[in-house]
Design brief:
By secondary structure, the protein is α/β, with parallel strands linked by helices. Strand 8 and strand 9 form a beta hairpin.
Length: 210
């Protein structure tokens, strides 16, 4: 499945939305502050969809940790991305890797996302934005985007339970056993995401040099 097959069927409205997001991305300096390969990953504790605390370092010490930041279950592109990762469960298991999907949604909304997409991997709630800020990928939505989301009934402050019009830039990271980020892709265009097979290849390369 190509990137175009997976992410290329957006509506005119979503295209206009992400065009605005590109401008916000350029203005906020995320490209300069976001964590990159070679940087230490922030160690945070977040609740899963059932409210159970999960510490990132506890997982990366077991083997490669893939962290996928998505905007929420209301985002069509995010759901396509999560379903694409669902198809890589056997490959992740073969490599001894763990996958976490993180969004600022409340645990209840994260649970709905996991159930609707039939996900077996762990979905974490980052309503505090601790992880998004730690990885340097959180941004406040431009007023035009706030108006757009309001017009389509997507109340992000309520969905996220924090009263903020703040989202993470869709991003994918691979963290090794030492807590070092070995792969990072931060997408300013929310229609574009890291290809799971490219991330799998990065994990395989990591294993070769372990």
């Amino acid at each position: 499945m190509t990137r175009a097959d997976l992410y290329g069927r957006g509506s005119v409205a979503s295209g206009a939305l992400t065009d605005g997001a590109d401008d916000v991305f350029d203005a906020t300096g995320i490209a300069a502050r976001a964590k990159r390969a070679g940087d230490p990953a922030p160690d945070v504790v977040l609740p899963d969809a059932f409210g159970n605390p999960v510490r990132l370092s506890k997982l990366w010490r077991k083997g490669p940790l893939v962290i996928v930041f998505y905007r929420g279950g209301w985002c069509t592109y995010c759901n396509w991305q999560l379903r694409a990762w669902r198809q890589q469960e056997s490959e992740l298991a073969r490599l001894g890797a763990t996958l976490l999907a993180i969004s600022p949604q409340t645990p209840d909304n994260s649970l709905s996302t996991a159930e609707n997409n039939e996900l077996s991997f762990t979905v974490l709630s980052d309503s505090s934005l601790e992880a998004a800020n730690g990885f340097g990928i959180a941004f406040t939505l431009h007023p035009d985007l706030v108006d757009f989301y309001g017009s389509v009934g997507t109340d992000i402050p309520v969905l996220n339970g924090n009263g903020l019009w703040v989202l993470p830039v869709p991003s994918t990271f691979v963290v090794d056993r030492t807590g070092c980020i070995r792969f990072a892709l931060i997408e300013e265009d929310a229609r574009q995401r890291a290809e799971p097979l490219d991330v799998i290849a990065a994990i395989e390369e990591l294993a070769l040099h372990a």
